[in-house]
Design brief:
Length: about 475
C-alpha cells in the first residue's frame, strides 16, 4: 500500500477534492483492470477517452480518480485529482509508486526512424560482454539480465516501463538500454524515466498516419531531447539532416557521431562485405559482424554511447567486434546455394539501405529477388514508395502481404503497385499469400542468387483481421530447403 500524496510527488496538479492521505492499492489507466482501492488515471486516447470510463472505474472499486477534466457530479467518498496532463502524470506516479527505479540505473533511450532496436540490442550485448548486469526494452523483446519478457510494443506503456525498471534494479542491473518510439514520446510513456543519455539515429518517412505531418514527427523525436536533464548526454547522428534540430533546445551535453560531417565520434568504412564491416575508428582497424553502411552508423553510435558512459574505447571495440546485433535484422540463411536475407526493413529508407547494401556486396552475375509488403492500418503513403524502391533496386520483385491487420490485403497491394514504374512491371508480381510468395522466390532463384524478404524480420506472427496467426519468415525460408533440394 502507498499513500496517495506520496505518489503524486512532482505531478503538476490543477486541483484536488477529497482525502489525499488515502492508502491506494495500485495505479491503473484501463477501467477493465481496476481493482479495489486503486487509482484510476483517465487518459484521452486515439480511439476513446478514458474520462468516459470514470463511472465504470468507481463501480469496480477505484477510490481515487486522476483526470484532466473533473466529472460534473463528484462522489463524496472518492478523491479527485485534476492534473494538467494525465498521460504525463501516469508516468510520474508510476515512478513514485515503484520508488523511482530510474534513479538507480544508467538508462539510455534510443530514438529515430530506423536503427533503434539494433542500437539498443548492441548496447545490451556489449555491456553484457563487458560484465555488467543489464536491462533491455525493445521491439523484439524486453530483457532483465538473462530473463526474457515478451514485448508487445517498441516502448511499453508508462506503468509497465516503471514496473520493468523496478525489476531490473531488484535483479542488480546497473544499466538499461531502451527504445523510445515517437508514439511513446508523444503519449508520455517515458515520463518519469530519468535518462542518463539519449541517442538520435536518423529520421525519414514513417508514421505520418499518426503524426499527421513530417514536422510533427520531427517534433515528437525532439521532445525526448528537450526534456533531458542537464547532467545527461544527447548524442546525435551528425550526418542526418535533422540531427542538429534535436539539439536545439536541450540542456544535456551535446555530442555527435558520423561518417561524413565533422563529429565528436568519427569512423571510416574500410570494407563493406557480406562477411561484415571493417571500420577505421581513431586509427584503429576493427572488423564487426554486422553488414552495411547503416550498421556502421549503429556501431559508431553504440561505441560513442559506451564511451560517454565512461567505458574505455579500446575495450569497447574489442567486445563490440564480437556481438551479433538484433534478430531479424539482415539475418542471412543459406539454402541450396541461394542466400536468403530476412530483414525488418518496413520503411522506405530502411528498404533502400538494405537493397543498396546488397547491391554493394553482390558479385555481379546473380539476381536479387525481393519479397516485400506493407502493414495494414499504418501509414499508407509509404506503400507506393516502398514498391518503387524495391523494383528499382532488384531484378525481380514479389509484392505480398505484411500484417494486413484490418485492411483488405489486395487493396494494400494495389496501393503498392501504383508506385511501380511501367518499365518495371515485367519484373513485378503480386502474390497475396506471404508463404507462397517466399516459396515462389525460392523456386525462381538460381544458385548464387540473393533473396531479400523484407518487412517482418523477427516477427513470429501475421496479423489478419484481428487474429495473430503463427508466421515466421525465417521458418518459411528453412522450409525451402526441402523444396529446393528435391
Ligand atoms: C495509436 C497508439 O499508439 N495507441 C496506444 C495508446 O492507445 P490509445 O490512445 O489508442 O487508447 P484508447 O483505446 O483510445 O483508450 C484511451 C484510454 O482509455 C482507456 N480505456 C479504454 C477502454 C476501456 O474500456 N476502458 C478504458 O479505461 C485506455 O486504457 C486508455 O488509457 O495507448 C495504449 C496504452 O499505452 C497503447 O497500447 C496503444 O498502442 C496501440 C495498441 C498500438 O498499436 N500502438 C502502436 C502504433 C505503437 O505504439 N507503436 C510504437 C512503435 C512505432 C514505431 O516506431 O515503429 C510502439 O512503441 O510500439
Ligand atoms: N541506422 C540505420 N539507418 C537506416 N536503416 C537502418 C538502420 N539500422 C537498421 N536499419 C534498417 O531498418 C530496419 C529496422 O531496424 P531496427 O529494428 O533496428 O529499427 P527500429 O528503429 O527499431 O524500428 P521500429 O521502429 O520498427 O522498432 C533494419 O532491418 C534495417 O533494414
Ligand atoms: N513498429 C512498426 C512495425 C512495423 C512492422 C511491419 N511488419 C508492420 O506490421 O507494419 C509499426 O507498428 O508500425
Ligand atoms: Mg524497434
Amino acid at each position: 500500500m502507498r499513500v496517495l500524496k506520496d505518489i503524486l510527488y512532482k505531478v503538476s496538479l490543477n486541483s484536488t477534492i477529497g482525502n489525499m492521505d488515502k492508502e491506494i492499492s495500485e495505479i491503473v489507466f484501463d477501467s477493465r483492470k481496476v481493482v479495489k482501492d486503486s487509482v484510476f488515471v483517465a487518459i484521452s486516447g486515439t480511439i476513446v477517452d478514458g474520462h468516459d470510463f470514470i463511472d465504470t472505474a468507481l463501480e469496480k472499486g477505484a477510490s481515487v480518480i486522476v483526470c484532466e477534466v473533473l466529472p460534473e457530479k463528484v462522489d463524496a467518498n472518492t478523491t479527485y485529482v485534476q492534473v494538467i496532463n494525465s498521460a504525463s502524470a501516469l508516468g510520474i506516479m508510476a515512478a513514485n509508486y515503484y520508488e523511482n527505479p530510474s534513479s538507480k540505473l544508467k538508462i539510455v533511450a534510443v530514438t529515430g526512424t530506423n536503427g533503434k532496436t539494433t542500437t539498443a540490442t548492441l548496447l545490451y550485448q556489449l555491456f553484457v560482454e563487458m560484465g555488467y548486469v543489464v536491462g533491455l526494452l525493445s521491439t523484439v523483446e524486453n530483457k532483465i539480465n538473462d530473463e526474457i519478457i515478451p514485448a508487445t510494443h517498441t516502448t511499453p506503456d508508462a506503468l509497465s516501463i516503471q514496473a520493468l525498471l523496478r525489476k531490473m534494479v531488484d535483479a542488480g542491473c546497473t544499466h538499461c538500454f531502451m527504445e523510445a518510439s515517437s508514439h511513446a514520446i508523444v503519449q508520455e510513456r517515458t515520463s518519469g524515466v530519468r535518462l542518463t543519455g539519449a541517442i538520435f539515429t536518423n529520421i525519414s518517412h514513417d508514421h505520418l498516419d499518426y503524426h499527421g505531418t513530417f514536422d510533427e514527427y520531427i517534433k515528437a523525436k525532439k521532445k525526448l531531447f528537450d526534456e533531458l536533464p542537464k547532467d545527461s548526454f544527447a548524442l546525435i547522428n551528425a550526418d542526418d539532416k535533422r540531427g542538429m534540430v534535436m539539439l536545439q533546445n536541450t540542456k544535456a551535453t551535446r555530442q555527435s557521431f558520423g561518417l561524413k560531417y565533422p563529429a565528436d565520434f568519427k569512423a571510416k568504412i574500410l570494407t563493406n562485405a557480406l562477411e561484415g564491416l571493417e571500420l577505421d575508428i581513431n586509427g584503429k582497424q576493427v572488423w564487426f559482424r554486422m553488414i552495411g553502411e547503416f550498421n556502421a552508423y549503429n556501431i559508431l553510435g553504440v561505441m560513442a554511447t559506451a564511451v560517454l558512459l565512461g567505458e574505455d574505447e579500446d575495450e569497447v571495440l574489442v567486445q563490440l567486434s564480437k556481438v551479433q546485433g538484433a534478430q531479424g535484422r539482415f539475418d542471412k540463411i543459406s539454402i541450396a546455394g541461394i542466400t536468403a536475407i530476412v530483414d525488418y526493413a518496413h520503411t522506405p529508407d530502411a528498404l533502400e539501405n538494405v537493397l543498396k547494401t546488397i547491391q554493394g556486396v553482390r558479385s555481379g552475375g546473380e539476381q536479387v529477388i525481393t519479397v516485400v509488403g506493407c502493414g495494414g492500418n499504418r501509414d499508407k503513403t509509404k506503400r507506393p514508395i516502398m514498391a518503387k524502391i524495391a523494383t528499382q533496386l532488384s531484378d525481380k520483385v514479389i509484392l505480398t502481404s505484411d500484417n494486413p491487420r484490418n485492411e483488405e490485403p489486395m487493396a494494400i497491394l494495389r496501393e503498392m503497385e501504383a508506385g511501380v514504374n511501367p518499365v518495371d512491371f515485367k519484373k513485378t508480381m503480386i502474390i497475396e499469400d506471404r508463404r507462397e510468395a517466399i516459396k515462389t522466390a525460392g523456386i525462381m532463384a538460381n544458385k548464387g542468387d540473393i533473396i531479400l524478404i523484407a518487412g517482418k524480420g523477427h516477427e513470429t506472427y501475421q496479423e489478419i483481421k484481428g487474429v495473430k496467426y503463427p508466421f515466421d519468415d525465417r521458418e518459411i525460408v528453412k522450409e525451402l530447403i526441402t523444396l529446393l533440394n528435391k
